[in-house]
């Protein structure tokens, strides 16, 4: 079937999730540095084409629990943030989230809105 | 509108492109090491859910041209590879490519096939 | 020869430079998002063992020049920032910089101070 | 104190460890794809200045244990590989390893040899 603008919107949304995760996974993170990393992730990914809004909610308690006191930090990975992304492709808005699902950071397409 | 399996297929396809690019951009690369990096990228991304096939064609000549002889290598980025990815989500096959377009590595949804 | 604390200090300093560069190379960046990325890089790498201070000076003009107006952003790489890092290993302070040198982002050991 | 060639050798060695870890952490990995990733990491990092040899030994059993059968892969991180790197800076050879130490992937300077 010929791709529609809604398919292109969800394709673009997927790109943002993959980019976000694989750019920043492995970044040293602590409860004290988490907020600055969240802001930088949001503004970095919002630079990408068709990206309207990125929201990164750091789970500070989970980060605190994961930090070995002898080491002082851990590495950013999917279990430490809830992410929501909104893409607008030619009036088609696609929205998705990344949330933990049974120990795995699941990226999920939530909905598509035709705002044209 | 309620997302269909075709929307989910293109969302999954986008994730693979974003992951591939942002995991491996910046990797030191030379004409001699390009083939091993291509193989590793293919088998790494094929691990991801619903990913059927990843094909990375390194542009060895472009890499060779970019390498400063005093340095001996350059960094992997979109201008050095053509990429094709095939995802299968519940019998819906989505296919995309990454190709240079006017100096920018454009990720493009090529088509969706209902193989069910 | 048996490594001394000064050798260990410079080893640790090198780790921070390699980590900084290869974690963040490829991040989408624009003149508007550069400051938040700089802050996040500094606080992320300062989490690492023995790392006293990281200073990232974004070259906003170079970023602005590199941004294709049709695309709106570019990717973070060594040409867009001057970096200075200070490590303290058992009272041995090692300091280094990353600066462009003939088109290549050169990481350079600047000095070692025994503060014990 | 003025840095010596031995200090520069250990600085360069550190760069390679930081680069290796933060370039490839987060890569999707499975027992089947681990060998190709190891080869690609070795040849990629050996491209870097003064880098003589990189050896990445994947811990296939640890990867197998970490893979959730419902997901089929995990992400590359320090617990899944032993790494050894040899740098030669002006006849000064610096050797280091990355090994797990109490749950943390410790990068350690092993020795310096003057081969000049």
Please, could you describe this protein's structure?
Chains A, B, C, D: It catalyses: 7,8-dihydroneopterin = 6-hydroxymethyl-7,8-dihydropterin + glycolaldehyde. Chains A, B, C, D: This is Dihydroneopterin aldolase. Four copies of one chain form a homotetramer. Chain A is of the alpha+beta class and 116 residues long. Chain A has one domain (5-114): 7,8-dihydroneopterin aldolase (MptD) (Pantoate--beta-alanine Ligase, Chain: A,domain 2, 2-Layer Sandwich), CATH 3.30.1300. Chain A has three helices and six strands. Chain A has helices at 5-24, 34-46, 60-66, and strands at 28-29, 51-58, 74-75, 81-89, 92-101, 104-114. Chain A is elongated and about 55 Å long. The model of chain A has no long low-confidence stretch (mean pLDDT 96). Chains in contact: A-B, A-C, A-D, B-C, B-D, C-D. The A-B interface holds A 1-3, 6-8, 10-23, 94, 96, 107, 109-114 and B 1-3, 6-8, 10-23, 94, 96, 107, 109-114.
